[in-house]
Amino acid sequence: MEMYIDPHIHLVSRTTDDYEAMRKAGIVATIEPAFWLGQPRTEVGSFKDYFSTLVGWERFRASQFGIVHYCTMGLNSKEANNIALAEQVMELLPLYVGKEGVVAIGEIGYDDQTEAEDKFYRLQLELAKEVSLPVLIHTPHRDKKRGTTRSMDVAEEHGMDPGWVVVDHNNEETVKEVLDRGFWAAFTIYPHTKMGSERMVEIVKQYGPERIIVNSAADWGISDPLAVPKTANLMRKMGIPEEHVRLTTYQNALTVFGLSGQMHEDDWLKAPPIDQTKKLGGNSVLRGGQLPRVEGPADRVEN
Ligand SMILES: [Zn+2]
């Protein structure tokens, strides 16, 4: 069976049905970038608990459905505009960037391209260099072309190696410059929009698979946690070579986020069997007498 990585998905807002469907579709590993929650946070403690969830409960919850969970740590650009709070978050971040399963600093960058966003983006690029982690850049949805160019200019200004930087949410207008400058170009598949699977297929046809990464960025909005396997299947149907499918929906993400030293293929190839009798902090994914799923060693062989 094919294996996929979804390197950008906000799992705290997804259900256990999603986890089951994702694993069934071949997703073996996921990366959950720290981001905003729709509702702006007003206290630094809210960030602390969220970061703890990303490295704690959510990682455990994913494991209960046979998916290895990683995350990125960072202060998102929207909330960077609350300067007093952002400064407190910057003090908190060093406590989390070294935790198990943290594969990058992100998602950081620009939203409205304000001065405050610029300040905290730069500070976090310096943090990434300090702790030798790759960077995941969120590019703005408004004025995207200019924001994408600026994100790369500033990353270079801070001496970041483009080979350690993933520029996310690309489209046809931005991809060429991102690839030409040596950065990784990630694409978010938004269902019912212009940037759907069909357009992704065209981009891979045109640019090839090198440094191109597909993700779902599924969150609490209208989004599809199966966008990566669905796009892979469409690529096959449209005649894209299997090796190109493998690179863009699996291997490229592993290569760049593996630079963290925190993500290895053996993490899922040699994962312990699913055991839903396990608990974290006394808490389980089971409710009201549900039967736990417990895999025997033999159940894993077929994967
Ligand atoms: Zn995101």
Put the structure in a nutshell:
This protein is α/β, with parallel strands linked by helices and 303 residues long.
Could you characterize the architecture of this molecule?
By secondary structure, the chain is of the alpha/beta class. The chain has a single domain (about 5-285), classed as Metal-dependent hydrolases (TIM Barrel). About 40% of the residues lie in helices and about 15% in strands. The protein has helices spanning about 15-25, 45-55, 55-65, 85-90, 115-130, 145-155, 175-180, 195-205, 225-235, 240-255, 265-270; strands spanning about 5, 25-35, 70-75, 100-110, 135-140, 165-170, 185-190, 210-215. Strands 1-2-3-4-5-6-7-8 form an eight-stranded parallel β-sheet. β4 (about 100-110), α5 and β5 form a beta-alpha-beta unit. α8 (about 195-205) packs across α9 (about 225-235) and α9 packs antiparallel against α10. The longest helix is centred in the middle third of the chain and has 17 residues, at about 115-130. The mean pLDDT is about 95. The protein binds zinc ion. Zinc ion binds near residues 8, 10, 33 and 217. The site of zinc ion (ZN) has 6 residues, from loops. Belongs to the metallo-dependent hydrolases superfamily. Keywords: Hydrolase, Metal-binding. It comes from Algoriphagus boseongensis.
